[in-house]
TrEMBL record:
Alphabetical keyword list: DNA-binding, Transcription, Transcription regulation
Pfam family, one: FCD
Species for this entry: Gordonia rhizosphera NBRC 16068
Full protein name: Putative transcriptional regulator
Domain HTH gntR-type: 1-69
The keyword Disulfide bond appears for this protein: no
Keyword Cell wall biogenesis/degradation carried by entry: no
Classification via PROSITE patterns: HTH_GNTR
Coiled-coil positions: none
Amino acid sequence: MSVTDEAIDKIKSMIVSGTLKPGERLPREADLAADLGVSRNSLREAVRALSLVRILDVRQGDGTYVSSLAPDSLLDAVSFLLELHQDDSVLEIFGVRRILEPGATALAARFMTDEDIQKLNDILLEQYDGTIEDLVEHDLRFHAAIAVGSGNTLLASLLESISQPTVRARIWRGLTEENAFERTLAEHRGIVEAIAQRDPKLAEARSLSHICGVEEWLRRANA
């Protein structure tokens, strides 16, 4: 269990036990992190995850509150989590990505022009605000550019068609896995370096490692 998952469980336990009640404001971040025995960064990630599923309500400039926990307000969030944790098709889609995308990346190392590679670097160099939405948008654009760069339009089309169904899994990973943002960008940089070196085998290996990491996380989440 990651530190963020541990923080999530502890906050949920406080709510279930009545220590935190519906509509009640959470203690100051520093105090709550100390009480839970986690870092402030891990606490922030836990709060972001719980706000996504509407257990917590983050009010800008006012603090974080336990939501009303009304059934209707939680229904969409429950559906989201059931889709993520019980639908094996998401794992199957990642399995298809694991087969197709490393090959596309190897082709990109052969066929991408210098201009195409510069566009990949431009994606890496863009300024990000650190939100999960920003990370997912970056991830989608990055992988789409490599698929197109493979020079195989059918392969690029196949990868695009299976990309959108994985968005929710990517969002949940970004919210609950420690340092997901930094790890994703670092792995993307490694892939671009291999493509720029015109090394198909290295590009394929780094792409495979990148996708397997996400797939492994998803299997743990589904366990």
